[in-house]
Specification:
Blueprint (H helix, E strand, L loop, with lengths): L2 H4 L4 E4 L6 H31 L6 H30 L3 E3 H34 L4 H4 L2 H27 L8 E2 L6 H7 L5 H35 L4 H29 L8 H25 L2 H33 L1
Parallel strand pairs: 1-3
Antiparallel strand pairs: 1-2
Length: 329
Amino acid sequence: MDDRNVSTITYFIITGISGQPSFQLLLFLLILLIFIITLGGNAIIFLLVCLDHHLHTPMYFFLANLSILDISCSTITILNILTSFLSGDNTVSVLKCLVQIFAFLSLTCDELLLLAAMSYDRYVAICRPLHYHLVMNSKLCVLLASLCWGCGFLESIPTFMGIFKLTCYESDKVDHLYCDIVPVLKLSCSDTSFLQLYILTVGVIVCGFTPFALTFISYIFIITTILSIRSSSGRRKTFYTCSSHLTVVICLYSSLVFQYLRPISSINLGSSKYFSLFNVAAVPMLNPLIYSLKNKDVKAAIRRKINISVVSINNQDHTENNKTLKILI
């Protein structure tokens, strides 16, 4: 295929994982279940934080932002996988594919930075508890969240402009579950050396190493403070307050390291699909489960809302019964 022919590609074909119909059906049902749990779980967390005044704290403010990120990330990736399976159409326009890459990179960078902000919140709460409300005031929380969203968006713009200028592709088949930067760059027959260098330097440093370093430093101070607590029950109780966040951090960074932290030429797309699936499906699903199952404040908020709903229904039934009784009398 010559350059003139490959340059006329206007759409890509997403190959998926397997061409076996039985496996595809099982995979579809699994992904659909994960997608429903992800949307439902994160929506519940977001609504609880908004509606329950007991959760109007910096920690849950950042958790609400994390829920929005998880919903957005799942929608732009998992929803497209499900839609293509139902419609049988695995094609996607080049422009839509590039926009999906930009959105996914932005949201991933946003999430890493947001987890770093949450680690700073845990550092202040554990290491400087007397100054917590003074330091983590509403203005700082809004500023940190805005910086996380803004930096993720700005950092991904040069990458988007770089892949947008690619005009030569060896094939129209993207060997992946969705449009991701690695399989698209592997298809390109244009010179991508500068773009790859930018991704491995600026991209990794800004989106990967910087938030990782901030998170790591915060947890060094946190662990040091926890170890200085004399009672074992006090140490367990203090560590429990940050265990949910630490679990999410480990899951996300582990999947990203296996997926991206290698030269693009050496990445095996076959194995990368499974890490990608874990990253875009399992991690957003685990976040609300981890925070709801391990967090007593969230569980208490759920119980309060359920109790309020039950009381409201009972009062409504009681009112209707009184009205019926008056009519009969």
